[in-house]
């Protein structure tokens, strides 16, 4: 803009004009080159601040890497023995490795900082997880690595006592713990709540919102595909759906027994149900938080959540007024929370009166919220690692 102004404002012929112009252009180029140099130096500085290697030894690692970080893995084949990816974020260079071939002592440790992704759901998994922790401890003792953080798929009843002796605060070596469910020991200092996410162990994909997902009318008001346990609130839900004929308006496929292995057909059915219904019913299981909540968000189907505490040692609601699902509520999740399935008929009545336009707005809001939620979790994860692992400037 400045160059044009000089040329236009000078109507009389000026023999030096060309020279001035080229001098201006040259100085502009020098300025841009300097800027570039500063930028590169800065990004180079940032680039070398922290190197973190993530060892994905539980399926929740794929949610962290592919869904929250938006990272890619090579090879793409989910059954590959070894998969890896990398990306730079903030001041940190992250690399991620996963697969059956990632075995303690049989791969190169390429960073001084390690994030271990572990499964602590049940006894056998905990035994396996502790082997990884002992391997990391040995690397710390021999000064091969400096810092360790753990992302833990916690127990559904929050009995995670076994991990405590490994934490720095209890004389162990683990600097930070990110753990699923409303674990009472979450303190936002060294123990953080982490989202359960989608069922990556069933290969639930990263879903890119499409125009039709947002704008098309959906054939069903709600869906519930899942196991109905004896004497659970899911039985109540089934009765209410049948009694008001709501099962005709919703896609309902209930089974008596849980099946860990999806067939291609059952998985496709489930994805279609999410895509074809405006609401996804989320009754409590062993824990209130379930994969279904996040999977529904991926397809713009609003979760209707049975907002009750489940038995066990998870955040007691007398102390944490927002438990269960504290993480989602704190982040302002735009869901429908109900205390009892008897409230469902009123919710469905309201649905019937909503225009497509209103539903489109709601889907946009939900999908945007979910994208922001993942971006926020990613930023929080990076900041927490950097604050803990980078040497502080305080004298």
TrEMBL record:
A GO CC annotation given for this chain: Golgi apparatus
GO biological process: protein O-linked glycosylation via mannose
CDD domains for this protein: RXYLT1-like
GO molecular function, one term: ribitol beta-1,4-xylosyltransferase activity
Domain RXYLT1 N-terminal: 52-195
InterPro entries the record matches: RXYLT1-like, RXYLT1_C, RXYLT1_N
Keyword tags: Transferase
Domain RXYLT1 C-terminal: start-end pairs: 201-390
Pfam families, A to Z: RXYLT1_C, RXYLT1_N
Protein name, per record: RXLT1 xylosyltransferase
Organism whose genome encodes this protein: Stercorarius parasiticus
Origin organism lineage: Eukaryota, Metazoa, Chordata, Craniata, Vertebrata
């Amino acid at each position: 803009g400045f160059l044009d102004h000089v040329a236009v404002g000078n109507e009389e012929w000026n023999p030096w004009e060309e020279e001035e112009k080229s001098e201006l252009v040259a100085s502009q180029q020098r300025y841009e080159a300097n800027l570039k140099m500063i930028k590169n130096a800065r990004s180079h500085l940032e680039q070398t601040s922290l190197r973190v290697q993530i060892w994905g030894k539980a399926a929740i690692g794929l949610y962290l890497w592919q869904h929250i970080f938006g990272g890619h893995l090579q090879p793409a084949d989910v059954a590959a023995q070894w998969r890896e990816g990398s990306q730079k974020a903030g001041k940190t260079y992250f690399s991620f490795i996963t697969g059956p071939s990632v075995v303690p002592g049989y791969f190169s440790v390429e960073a001084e900082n390690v994030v271990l992704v572990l499964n602590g759901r049940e006894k056998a998994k905990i035994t396996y997880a502790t082997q990884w922790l002992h391997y990391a401890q040995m690397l710390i003792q021999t000064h091969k690595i400096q810092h360790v953080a753990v992302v833990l798929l916690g127990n559904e009843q929050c009995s995670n006592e076994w991990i405590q002796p490994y934490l720095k605060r209890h004389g162990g070596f683990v600097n930070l713990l990110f753990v699923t469910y409303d674990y009472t020991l979450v303190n936002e200092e060294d123990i953080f709540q982490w989202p359960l996410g989608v069922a990556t162990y069933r290969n639930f994909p990263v879903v890119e919102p499409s125009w039709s997902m947002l704008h098309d009318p959906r054939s069903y008001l709600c869906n519930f595909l899942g196991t109905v346990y004896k004497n659970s609130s899911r039985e109540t839900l089934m009765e209410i759906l049948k009694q008001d004929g709501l099962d005709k308006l919703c896609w309902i496929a209930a089974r008596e027994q849980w099946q860990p292995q999806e067939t291609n057909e059952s998985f496709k059915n489930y994805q279609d149900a999410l895509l074809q219904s405006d609401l996804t019913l989320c009754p409590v299981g062993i824990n209130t938080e379930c994969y279904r909540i996040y999977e529904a968000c991926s397809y713009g189907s609003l979760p209707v959540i049975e907002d009750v505490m489940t038995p066990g040692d998870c955040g007691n609601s007398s102390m944490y007024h927002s438990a269960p699902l504290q993480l989602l509520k704190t982040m302002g999740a735009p869901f429908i929370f109900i205390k009892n399935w008897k409230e469902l008929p009123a919710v469905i009545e309201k649905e019937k009166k909503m225009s497509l336009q209103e539903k489109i707005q709601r889907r946009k809001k939900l999908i945007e919220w979910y994208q922001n939620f993942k971006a926020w979790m990613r930023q929080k994860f990076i900041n927490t690692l950097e604050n803990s692992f980078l040497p502080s400037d305080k004298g």
